[in-house]
Request: fold
Amino acid sequence: MVFYFTGTGNSLYIAKRLDDHPLSIPQVIHQPQLEFSADTIGIVAPVYGHEVPPMVKDFLKNARFQTDYFYLILTYGNRHGGAAELAKDLCERCGITVSYINVLLMVDNWLPGFDMEEQQKIDKNVEGQLAAI
Reply:
């Protein structure tokens, strides 16, 4: 079971590579029951200002996960700024034991800060990073 939050499609791309039917956090968060059970549960989300987005924080705080293996994959474009450590701390405060967490470098699509044409020319080896994860 994989949940995702995406603003531009980067995290959705990764979520679809990990699960044939990933679940959208913006759609799931409004369910009356936020209890999920699976052998493996993952969350894929972008790094916003060195942290997970506010909606992902709310989801982690309010959902209950029954799993033997919980993981997070955080996509970023330029600097992750310790986002994995901050996300792990957040999970611990929410009572979630994280089995695995990693960051995945992708095209930076924060338009005010980066030239998309230049970013698209850079080989970020997304597939290689995903294989390693």
Remarks:
- The CA atoms of residues 28 and 100 lie 23 Å apart.
- The beta strands are 2-4, 23-24, 35-37, 40-46, 64-66, 69-76, 100-105.
- The mean pLDDT is 88.
- The radius of gyration is 14 Å.
